[in-house]
Amino acid sequence: MGKKVAVLVGSLRKGSYTRMVAKALCGLGPGLECEMVEIGQLPFYNQDIETDNPPAEWTAFRKRIREADAVLFVTPEYNRSMPATVKNAIDVGSRPGGASVWGGKPAAVVSVSPGAIGGFGANHHLRQSLMAVGMATMAAPEAYIGGVSKLLDEQGGIVKEETREFLRKIMQSFAAWIEANGRA
């Protein structure tokens, strides 16, 4: 049985390039069992509702992340940063204090953009937050997927073999990262 990877997609749009890239990545990970974990339904983190009975969505999300061996974040860039949904998911998973689901868990970040920079700002802001919650985030190879609209067909298939090989390299490196940094 392979390592269980929770995949968080920063774009909520069903037909988004980010979601297409996430699905493509999942098909290229050797020995990795990817599972999309939706984040759009999570109520915004508010300490006032962090009681003995937090929102059911928070509880279910925390359980799924806790059960995963690693987390793959695939995000677009909104205004030079990550989408609010991604930051909210990190906040929800890091609370209550002392019960974070993130600490020590291996992670990788892939950013996606139709523009040339490939979501550089989102990628680095996300990495800062992951460091703050104690995730073991893969440093290299870095993955900034620019010009994504030219790399995929309408069904989300990869149209260029060099793109497929790059994504395969990311997932092979991530599989090795999980082995080296995961919990026994």
Could you explain the architecture of this structure?
The longest helix is centred in the C-terminal third of the chain and has 21 residues, at 161-181. Strands 1, 2, 3, 4, 5 and 6 form a six-stranded parallel sheet that branches. This protein has helices spanning 17-26, 56-67, 84-93, 120-132, 161-181, and strands at 3-9, 32-36, 70-76, 106-112, 136-137, 143-145. It has five helices and six strands. The chain is of the alpha/beta class. Helix 4 links the parallel strand 4 (106-112) and strand 5. The protein is globular. The protein has a single domain (3-181), classed as Rossmann fold.
Give the helices and strands, then pairings.
Layout: E1 3-9, H1 17-26, E2 32-36, H2 56-67, E3 70-76, H3 84-93, E4 106-112, H4 120-132, E5 136-137, E6 143-145, H5 161-181
Parallel strand pairs: 1-2, 1-3, 3-4, 4-5, 4-6
